[in-house]
Specification:
The protein is α+β, with helices and mostly antiparallel strands. The chain has a single domain, classed as 2-Layer Sandwich (Nonspecific Lipid-transfer Protein, Chain A). Helix content is 41%, strand content 30%. It has four helices and five strands; from the N terminus they run H-E-E-E-E-H-H-E-H. Strands 3-2-1-4-5 form a five-stranded mixed beta sheet. A hairpin with a 2-residue loop joins strand 2 and strand 3.
Length: 114
């Protein structure tokens, strides 16, 4: 299992290149940017099941800022995104509804992987 933000995002980019749509993301339209302290920034564009991941700080509908350890725990399903935000461990700016949708997707992905 990947243990750095860069490893996680590189793996996600490779998976997206081999698959054009993800049915679990149908109905979601928006963009996320993850600003991971000391690791980098990534933008994820979701358009009704189609996902594009790029590295960079382009504007996004929902911006999530956190330390790398929190990012890894959230992606692994070990930390709840919304709880981390309430604890001040993660800062969410922009569209909170998108953040909630992301949390549901991450949680569902981890449950299927188990």
């Amino acid at each position: 299992m990947a243990d750095t933000a860069r490893d996680i995002m590189t793996t996600a980019q490779r998976r997206r290149e081999s698959r054009t749509e993800d049915p679990r993301l149908q109905g979601i339209n928006g963009s996320y940017r993850f600003d991971v302290e000391g690791a980098g920034s990534w933008r994820i564009e979701v358009r009704d099941g189609t996902v594009a991941i790029t590295e960079g700080t382009a504007p996004a509908d929902c911006v999530i800022r956190c330390e790398e350890a929190d990012f890894v725990r959230i992606v692994r399903g070990e930390q709840n995104l919304l709880t981390a935000a309430l604890q001040g461990r993660v800062q969410v700016e922009g569209d909170y509804a998108l953040a909630q949708r992301l949390h549901g997707f991450v949680r569902g992905s981890q449950e299927r992987a188990a």
